[in-house]
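Project standup — Tuesday

K.O.: blocked on the structure for the chain from last sprint. Re-posting the sequence here as requested.
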Amino acid sequence: MNSRERVQAALNYEKIDRIPFDATLSIGACNKLIDYLHLPVKKMDSCNIFQLCFPEPEVLKALGIDCAYLPVHVPSNVKPYTYGEEEHVTEFGLLYKKAVSGEYEDMQVVNAPLADYELEDLDRFPWPDPNDDAIYAGLRERAKYLYENTDLALVGYFGGSMFTLASQMRGMEQWLYDLAGDPEFAVALMTRLKEYFITLYCRCLDECGEYLSFIRTDYDDYGAQNAGLISLKMYRELIRPVTDEFYDVVKKKFLSKNPNGKMMKHSCGDVFSFVNDFIDMGIDMLDPVQTNAKDMDFDTLAKAYKGKIAFHAGIDTQKILPHGTKEDVEREAKEAIEKLAMPGGYVIGPVHHLQPDVPPENFIALRDAVIKYGTFDKTL
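H.V.: unblocked you, prediction finished:
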């Protein structure tokens, strides 16, 4: 099997030769791996505001990664983020400033552009235009090239957020107050964001949907380390009606372009109680399976949801990968494969974007452990 076939079969719960391996890399981590493996390629010098870079296929292949991510651009009236800049303003008015701690570099939001808005003020905010052609420039060409010239599974990485982006634009404290004390405003704000991202995703899928194996639908985080950020009741009453429409429209569009297309839902933290709702809404795969959060361990997840939804990632990036030994990493990978895979239904990888505090030898130990413990039939 090649990478694309392997990912597709795994997400269809079919026979596979081995567990697919996926990883998204911060620019610092990627360049450390390029050095460590002495790869004959130029180091990465660009990334998005989350420090995520998009390596060329030869780097992904050397790292054993089966997936390549396809991002979009910013609107034409917004300055693109440049790696290393001290501060940056996004199309939603969020001001990010650089934060550095040791090897770890990040951009953190320091403002809340809608903090003082009332419901009637939402019309005067300068909302970005999802029909700005600059957002989609080169997307189809890049997808077509990678599809025809590599065997990687292509993944749509188009952003999208109704809950988390709203919390950033309002400020988390105010946003939680909105949900509890002013639900009309909260729903109106999420609805604005939903409409923007429905248009954006449908445009993206018109451009390249037939080439994609799966899409990451959004980056809404509903979980903290030991509980949900909100109650399941609040989620079902306020958030789910908004996101349900988003998923429904996007999935119908995706399947019209690719009948085998799958949708992945991202949410950090303890989201155990939300997973049945994700399944009901047509989500095919749960990311990132943050196993050190409450109720998100391999055994609990497998008992409740194995075979009902596919799992993505699952290898701890808080302790095991950055601070464990190669033997610790191998044990973690072996346990994840044994408990989450059927053998289909699982794409293994680090829980979050790989950071530069992860020793390269630990990442390579993970890559090798996937082959060692995740290979089932070499003849496929």
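K.O.: great, moving the ticket to review. The longest strand covers residues 95-101. The chain has a mean pLDDT of 97.
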